[in-house]
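lol so apparently i was supposed to do this last week
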Amino acid sequence: MTEKSAKPQITSTSRRTFLGAGLALGGAAIAGNTARAAQGEDVILEKQAWSQYLGDGVDARPYGHPSEFEKDVVRRDVAWLTADPVSSVNFTPLHELDGIITPNGLCFERHHAGIAEVDPSKHRLMINGLVDKPLVFTMQDLKRFPRRNHVYFLECAANSGMEWRGAQLNGCQFTHGMVHNVMYTGVPLKYLLEEAGVKTNGKWVMPEGADASAMTRSIPMFKALEDCLVAFKMNGEALRPEQGYPLRLVVPGWEGNMWVKWLRRIEVGDEPWHHREETSKYTDLLENGKARRFTWEMDAKSVITNPSPQAPLLHSKGQTVITGVAWSGRGTIERVDVSLDGGKNWRPARIDGPSLDKSIHRFYYDFDWDGSPLLLQSRAMDSTGYVQPTKAELRAVRGTNSIYHNNGIQTWHVMANGEVENVEVS
Ligand code: MTE
Ligand code: CO
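anyway here it is w/ MTE bound
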């Protein structure tokens, strides 16, 4: 491939706001890095406490937790986005994860009225509206239907929303962390609708949450019958309260807002309800004053998770692993390309691990870093042939009024000292 060399213009994010713990990795940590190899030789000769004393027994940790050395691997919120934590969001620490599955305790949370603490013995799911036989299911009733297991990503349509007008948040946790990828166990919604008998004019469903926000969205019947799940397990164990225990709707590939948590009712109707979350919210205001509505599918997107502002490079040059995640609401990821020079030249990344429909894919680009600054980008292509756009391409079509559905290509500026910042190139 021919290397182009024109220097791109960089618009830097403000370095005023360092967000959360573990970010203030200044020169000290990085400068000390060269000493690490020699120090490592001493450490291997030292006898550590953990080799001299007995550890905890099998009775000490009935429910396992990560090592205390991993205590910074947590969901984080952004102070200025959190006027009140009961109606806010925190973010998945993408830069701390690998593979494709998000551990349950690290799945980002988005609540409109806090975490409902639901007693499953008092929880019911009702199906009503345009059905032959309105039904009310207990949790036990639901567990008698044939169930399915699927890994799906959930992305909030507002993920990367704060970046519409320029680089702002310094960390992929904050720019891209409103996504998680989980194996769900649940009953296809189709089976429950068939049990109730949908009338011929039943063309839409409206799931409703049991939390104080009574979250409701309109979903077309074709999607309800195609692949929606009424899920009660995530990654093998019961849903976490944060994720809608004991029951949530799974709407594969579609915006996270539709995945109603603490699911208590599904109404069948003949037209959409036009509730708050599909009118004043989750619509995209274009430059001409018109708004896009019912933008359900999540377009293909990717981001490099390491290195990134919260995960600087700790060596000065040589063998280096770049890794990241890619996903599409329309299928699998066919290909991810990585650029080291702000999108002038692209090289294919290696997708590793399962390639599942509407699931996060993991990619790697292994290379020999010469220690000079980099402008890292990743670009995903999905199984429909759709290619992730640049931010400029996205803005040319959608303007700058939007919050939702920002799937533009992210740029990280890796400096010679290994520190990384959020920038845009033009
Ligand atoms: N369901 C209910 N009942 N209440 C809510 O506040 N938030 C929605 C959706 N389902 C919400 C809900 C939004 S906007 C998103 S992005 C996802 O749940 C977030 O799911 P998570 O908290 O499991 O990440
Ligand atoms: Co959301």
